[in-house]
Amino acid sequence: MKHFTSVQDIGPLEQALAKAREVKKDKFAHADAGKHLTLLLVFFNASLRTRLSTQKAAENLGMQVMVLNIKEGAWLLETQHGVVMDGDKAEHLLEAIPVMGCYADVIGVRSFAGLTSKEEDYGETVLNQFIRYSGKPVISLESATRHPLQSFADLITIEEYKTVAKPKIVLTWAPHPSALPQAVANSFAEWILTAGYSLTITHPKNYELHNAFTAGADIVYDQEEALQGAHFVYAKNWSAYQDPFYGKRLHGDPSWIINERKMALTDNARFMHCLPVRRNVVVSDKVLDSPRSLVIPQAANREIAAQVVCKSIIDSIKTKSI
Ligand code: CP
To answer: Angle at the Cα of 260 (from 188 to 185), degrees rounded to 5?
Structure first.
């Protein structure tokens, strides 16, 4: 694996899931694989799970890990080319990224969508500069359009908890007080459809996602109809993708909350969310605190997903296929 930025990079999902099962059996089976290799985790945005799980996964493989929080103690970085740097940004990515590449063998990057320019966000301007200028393998820790480590962990979780071969999986938009990126929803749809599952997506009108991610999914505007017979309910807020609303929070209709009444429409569905989650806005306490909730197993599987990805990149470095 050269870089890990989407489901396309991981190869056949059956093999990736088999590797995940192996990691779960013994996280320290390859405890020296990453010896003398350094992973740098660069965060332009906040994180709890991604930071801890990726660091832990890399350390399970013997890697050294450095974390750089751009907003805490680092120079603020300019990401646009051709600008006059007379503002608060003291350093350009064009220098900063190659410098990071001098100190690290693998670089993980978290850079959320700015939600002001669809062209910039969907052009992945920050992630692609890391790939272009670092000279090192790059792992997406959530980019403007995708969150592949989260989606891999979500798929592992669905495989572990499904009770029928072809479960009904529903991705539902949920309310939120802020405008959030589409990355988690895009990525979840991409991974679930690539895994060969059918997917139902439900959201209010004008919250349609980019069809590059959702082609093949059933789009149902009536949430209660969509939830009928579901085995997994994945709730997530996202801002509008379609023009002229790109990046906007059009409304936060509270009737889209996932609560016990909605879950009663399903076939004993499991509740999923990537976290962090707004209690009693996105989902009720009773659903989140019920045995049907998988949010903690999902988070635990973030370490497993990251370890499969790190090991694959280590193997590529060692065989000099990068
Ligand atoms: N789900 C997720 O990526 O969590 P963090 O934002 O805390 O890393």
So the answer is: 15
> Is 280 found in the same domain as 166?
yes
Do 260 and 287 belong together in one domain? Answer: yes
- Whole-prediction pTM value? 0.97
| Structural domain of 168 | 149-298
Tokens 């009773």 identify what position? 286
Q: Which of 274, 282, 294, 298 to mutate to test the pocket of ligand 1 (most atoms within 8 A of CB)?
A: 274
Closest-CA residue to 7 (of 132, 127, 147): 147
Cα–Cα distance between 50 and 54 in angstroms, integer? 6
Which residue's CA is the nearest one to ligand 1's atom 4? 49
Does one domain contain both 281 and 310? no
DSSP H helical segments within 38-170, as ranges?
Answer: 49-60, 93-103, 118-122, 125-134, 148-161
**220 and 244 together in one domain:** yes
Q: Are residues 316 and 272 in the same domain?
A: no
Find the 262 Cα to ligand 1 centroid distance in Å: 26
Residue pair 114/120 in contact (Cβ under 8 Å)? The answer is yes
The torsion angles phi and psi of 301, rounded to 5 degrees, stand at -75, -10
pLDDT for position 220: 98
CA distance 294 to 272: 5
**DSSP H or E stretch at residue 115:** none
10-residue mean pLDDT series, the chain (322 residues): 96 98 98 98 98 98 97 92 96 97 98 97 98 98 98 98 98 98 98 98 98 98 98 98 97 96 98 98 98 98 98 95 62
